[in-house]
Amino acid sequence: MSADYKPVSWTRSKAVYDSVMLVGIVLYLLAFLWIGPRLQSVTLPPDAPTMAMKAYGSCAFLMLTLVLCIGPLARLDTRFLPLLYNRRHLGVMTCAVAAGHLFAVLDWHFAYSPTPPLAALLGADTAFIPFGIFAFLVLLAMACTSHDFWLVFLGPPVWKALHMAVYAAYAAVVVHIGFGALQDARNPTLAIVVMLCTATVCALHLAAARREHRRDTSLATPAPEPPWLVAGRADDIAENRAIVVRPADGEAVAIFRHQGRLSAVSHVCAHQNGPLGEGRVVDGCITCPWHGYQYRLEDGTSPPPFTERIATYRLRLDGRLVLLDPRPNPPGTPVPPLELPA
Ligand code: HEM
Ligand code: FES
Known about the structure:
10 strands, binds protoporphyrin IX containing FE
C-alpha cells in the first residue's frame, strides 16, 4: 500500500464476476442467434445480419438496465453491494456489446448504400438513429474513462458527473427503440420487454429514494448542539459494514460497526479515492472495496509495514442515535471506538 506495495487490482471476486457476465452474454447471443430462428414459424426468417443487430441491440439494452438497477438494489439491500463494486466492468462490457450492434447495423442497413456505410449512417434521414448514436457515444466515453487513472486525473466530481450521463444514455436508448424498432407493431415482445425494463429501473430508484427519505425523516429529532450532527441509528449499521454520512459542508464520513463498537473515518480511500464506506471490516481492518487497502478502526492508519493514513472523526451516542462531529481529525489520529450499550 505504501511505496513498495504492488496493489493486486485483479481480485478473485472480479474474475468470478467477469466470467459470469461473459458466460451470460455468450449464452444470450447464442440463444438469440441459433435457437431463435428455429423457433420461428415464418416462411422467410430474418437474415443473419438482422438477427445479429437484434441480438446485440437487445443484449446491450438488458445489460444497461442491469447496470442502472444495481445502484438502487445495493441501497435497498447490502447483499447486492458486491455487484456494485464491479459495476464498471459491466459498463465496459455493455459498451462492447453495443459496438457489436453498431457493426451489425453498418453491415446490413447501410451495406447497399452507394455512400460509405459510416457516412450513410450519419446522414440517414431517420429520427431514431441520432438517439442511438448519442447513447453509444456516452457508453464509449464512460468505458474509456472507467479506469482509476481517469478518476484521479479528472477528479471525483467531474468523473461522477460524466458517469451520471448513463441515465441520459438510457433515456436515449428507450427513445431509439421507441421511434425505431417499435414502429413495427407486428411483434409485441420487444415493446413488453422495454416497458418492463423501464418500469423496473424507475420503480427501484423510487423505492430507494423513498427509503432514504423515510430514514431521514425518522431521524428528524431536535438538532444536537453544534458541531454534532445526527448520523443515523446505531441499529441500522450492519456488523462489519458502514453507513455513509455526507455533512452539508465537508467530506463524506463512513461509520463502521465492528464487535459492538463504532468507528468513523473518511469515506475516501487514500489510494485512489475509492468509496471506503462501501467496503467491509476484514480481519479487524476497514477494507476498501476497490483494491483492498486496509485501515485500522481505532486510528485510520494502514497496518504495518504500510503507512497510509486517513482522517478519523469523533462519535457519541444520544440514546440509540449516533452523533458525529464532522470536523476531521488529522489523518491517523487515534479515536477510541465508541462502545454500544448491549
Ligand atoms: C451508433 C449507435 C446506434 C445505431 C446506429 C443503431 C441503429 C439501430 C438500427 C438501424 C436499428 C433497427 C431499427 C428497426 O428495426 O427499425 C436498431 C435497433 C435497436 N437498437 Fe440500436 N443503434 C445504435 C445504438 C444502440 C444502443 C447503444 C443500444 C442499446 C444499449 C441499442 C439498442 C437497440 C435495440 C434494442 C434495437 C431493437 C432491436 C430489435 O429489433 O429487436 N442501439 N438500432
Ligand atoms: S484500495 Fe484503491 S481506491 Fe481504495
